[in-house]
């Protein structure tokens, strides 16, 4: 959720920087003036990248622990603990097909009933996959850009991105927020089923 919030903040700051970017590209202002005006957006983008890395590590650790528990409980499947890690790095990469399949299996295997293999997976799992894996590719195809750019890019490239990719940046911010909500709902639901399966107490139960 922090990563998603930073993405929306970045989109807002980028929108406020359009005039500054145009002025720089037209030669009205200097490179230093544009960098000073756009520095806040670049800082937010940097923190968003760092938070994305942290969130990714936590997500992988959570998926690994849950799938490892399933293995120890005799609920083995093809998508075991190793795939909870490797699935994020093997093709087709940004589509995240394998993590989606791992999450589907995690939902099923967390079912406390004995007939867990036939457990029905809720729509939120597929919704997360569409919002996080499929929809961003549609933005890339429509806008024709390969990254959010900014940090580490040349000044001219950054200014052109600010002007030309406003819709894409807003789209990424909104999709990121929606995907984060879907992720939180999905993680909470799987965790609740899993704690019921293993007999663990959830943090809310422990606090009560």
Key features of this structure:
9 helices, 0% strand, mainly alpha, 208 residues
Topology summary:
Elements (H helix, E strand, L loop, with lengths): L1 H15 L1 H8 L5 H42 L8 H6 L10 H13 L13 H21 L11 H10 L1 H33 L4 H5 L1
Average of pLDDT: 89
- Mind describing the biggest β-sheet? none
Helix content: over 70%
Strand share of the residues? under 5%
What is the overall silhouette?
elongated
Low-confidence stretches: 145-151
H and E order = HHHHHHHHH
What is the count of distinct domains?
Answer: 1
Radius of gyration: 21 Å
Terminus-to-terminus distance: 25 Å
Number of strands: 0
Structural class: mainly alpha
Total of helices: 9
3D structure, described in words:
The longest helix has 42 residues, at 31-72. The chain is built from nine helices and no strands. The chain is elongated and about 70 Å long. 74% of the residues lie in helices and 0% in strands. The chain has helices at 2-16, 18-25, 31-72, 81-86, 97-109, 123-143, 155-164, 166-198, 203-207. It is mainly α and 208 residues long. Helix 1 packs antiparallel against helix 3 (31-72).
Short description:
The chain is an all-alpha fold. It has helices at residues 2-16, 18-25, 31-72, 81-86, 97-109, 123-143, 155-164, 166-198, 203-207. The protein has one domain (2-207).
